[in-house]
């Protein structure tokens, strides 16, 4: 009888961090399940690139803000493909720079739903399964992408900073409960600009290439390099787990030394 495939699930599989991490895990022998909210053609292209490189992948369109979508995806993947050995939550929650008076309740709540409640829902659906498998020698890893806003608030970032701060505390709480049960929970804080066409590229539009040139050589984070960090964390032995890490270009000032008034929506 054939062994079930080990599965890597990424929620937030765009052309930047999510797509590159999926490619890295597929290269490492996982069946990568890519989920994103929109852009069926972009999703099809990512799955095709993984297949062309000799890996296995499948894609799903998923609106994580809707009830039961995340939970249903976990159930469907584990039933039809195999146990999810590693999951990555990579959805952002940036609603833009808004003064307090320009932040409606609905917009503020949306940031929380995407940045904090959605990974909580994924953890609720998946981590108990991982813990059960860990009792019999299985592996379980939950990787969560975070941002500078999780560490420091800034003017205009009321929704984003509070939601990402909640995401960080959620990861710490999950680790406290599930780490002793053999499930590895890690938050990867991206403290800088990422060369991602469908996030930063979409935000900057025609100015994207000029912005990258202004940052200089190695001044913007390569998502393929980020992917190697995610892969390394997922392969760590239990006696040497990373639970929180921050990544930035060598030319950037770390978040704890940066001037908040000069920050640009990190």
Strand content: 15-25%
How would you write the strand order of the largest sheet? 3-2-1-4-5-6-7
CATH superfamily: NAD(P)-binding Rossmann-like Domain
Classify the fold: give the CATH topology.
Rossmann fold
CATH class: Alpha Beta
Summarize the biggest pleated sheet: 7 strands, parallel
How many domains? The number is: 1
Distance between the termini: 49 Å
The SSE string, one letter per element, is EHEHEHEHEHEHHHE
Amount of helix = 40-55%
What does this molecule look like?
The protein is of the alpha/beta class and 266 residues long. It has one domain (7-247): 3-Layer(aba) Sandwich (Rossmann fold). Helices cover 42% and strands 15% of the residues. The protein is built from eight helices and seven strands, in the order E-H-E-H-E-H-E-H-E-H-E-H-H-H-E. It has helices at 17-27, 40-52, 69-80, 105-134, 158-178, 200-204, 208-215, 223-234; strands at residues 7-11, 31-36, 56-61, 84-89, 141-147, 184-190, 244-247. It has a seven-stranded parallel beta sheet, sandwiched between helices. Helix 1 packs across helix 8. It is globular and about 50 Å long. The termini are far apart. 40% of the residues are buried.
């Amino acid at each position: 009888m054939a062994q079930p495939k080990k599965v890597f699930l990424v929620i937030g599989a765009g052309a930047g961090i999510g797509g590159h991490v999926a490619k890295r895990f597929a290269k490492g022998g996982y069946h990568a399940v890519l989920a994103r909210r929109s852009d069926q053609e972009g999703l099809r292209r990512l799955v095709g690139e993984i297949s062309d490189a000799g890996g296995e992948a499948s894609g799903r369109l998923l609106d994580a803000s809707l009830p039961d979508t995340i939970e249903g995806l976990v159930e469907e993947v584990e039933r039809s493909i195999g146990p999810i050995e590693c999951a990555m939550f990579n959805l952002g929650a940036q609603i833009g720079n808004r003064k307090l008076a320009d932040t409606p309740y609905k917009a503020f709540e949306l940031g929380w739903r995407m940045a904090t409640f959605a990974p909580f829902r994924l953890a609720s659906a998946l981590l108990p399964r991982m813990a059960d498998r860990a009792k019999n020698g299985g592996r379980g890893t939950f990787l969560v992408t975070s941002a500078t806003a999780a560490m420091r608030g800034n003017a205009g970032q009321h929704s984003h900073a509070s939601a990402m701060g909640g995401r960080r505390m959620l990861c710490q709480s999950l680790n406290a409960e599930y780490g002793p049960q053999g499930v590895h929970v890690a938050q990867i804080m991206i403290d800088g600009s990422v060369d991602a066409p469908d996030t930063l590229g979409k935000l900057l539009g025609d100015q994207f290439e000029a912005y990258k040139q202004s940052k200089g050589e190695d001044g913007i984070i390569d998502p393929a390099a980020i992917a190697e960090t995610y892969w390394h964390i997922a392969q760590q032995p239990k006696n040497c787990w990373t639970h929180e890490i921050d990544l930035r270009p060598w030319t950037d000032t770390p978040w704890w030394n940066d001037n908040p008034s000069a920050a640009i929506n990190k």
